[in-house]
Amino acid sequence: MSNFSLREPVNLASTGIASFAKTAICTNLDDLIADIAVIGAPCDISIQGRSGARLGPRGIRLQSTRFSYSPEGSYDPERDDFYLSTKQWRVVDCGDADLVPGDLEASFANIEAAVRTIVSRGAMPVVLGGDHSITIPVARGLDIAGPFHVIHFDSHLDWSYTRGGQRYSNGSPCRCMAAMAHVDKMAHLGIHGIGSSQKSDFADALAYGDLILSPKQIRKIGIAETLARLPRGERYFVSIDIDVMDCSIAAGTGSPMHGGLYYDEMVELLEGVARLGTIVGFDLVEVAPQYDDLSGTTCYLAARLISDFLGFITKERELS
Ligand SMILES: [Mn+2]
After folding, report:
1. Does 170 score more than 70 pLDDT?
2. Is position 158 annotated in a ligand binding site?
3. Where are the beta strands (DSSP E) in 102-154?
4. 154 is in an annotated binding site
């Protein structure tokens, strides 16, 4: 979003409305014309640990204003290449899917409908969580973009079945996706530490045909071999739980974990995933700004990973 100016607007990061990367705002999805549509799902009703991810979209957006996309594109000196030129790619911010307090079903319905509308308008949805349960309505709304594989980055497997009779929690999105007809196999990358998924849940995931790798295993076999174990030439939905990142660089989340991935590793993985095939959409969940450090490191990391991944996805489309 440009600011009012009598001259050519300077449009500094610290000015203007904090849409994602200061992109244009389109809250009426029926009017959406875009290649990429960012939308918030600020729902944390189903979190099992510390709540707060409902403020994730706002926190990510605030930090994302450090990026702004330009007609010439963003220059990456490492790759000597330009990314996300606004002449080629229209990225818009669609606001949030409305959160209905205390009503998981209604909140999920809003998220699902928003995602399905974005896909039907020909744009790729990028969803800002919210706790990881929001991936359930996101995946439902992506039915018209399926069938697809799932690439899931997380410290936790998220294959739990039920807790106290509640089947839709931030520990169960992968089990819920496995039950969807348009969802194929899943790869769970970065799984380590303690979560709600039990040994039997791991067995169920493996029986479903899923790949599970921890950060240590990824380091041992290398990122190239990790990527080689993923199916190629398919359609993919990517779900990124920010707690896959080591808690030294991602404290602002409900369940921060030691022993996670680091930024350069994650970027290399995301670049490789973008090259696998068609990305139908992705989400980034579990950012809780309340637990972040004063400089907003976790929110900034989330914004950066989203922007990096968008750059890689659009680069592949430019080359194909
Ligand atoms: Mn998760």
Report:
1. yes
2. yes
3. 124-129, 148-153
4. yes
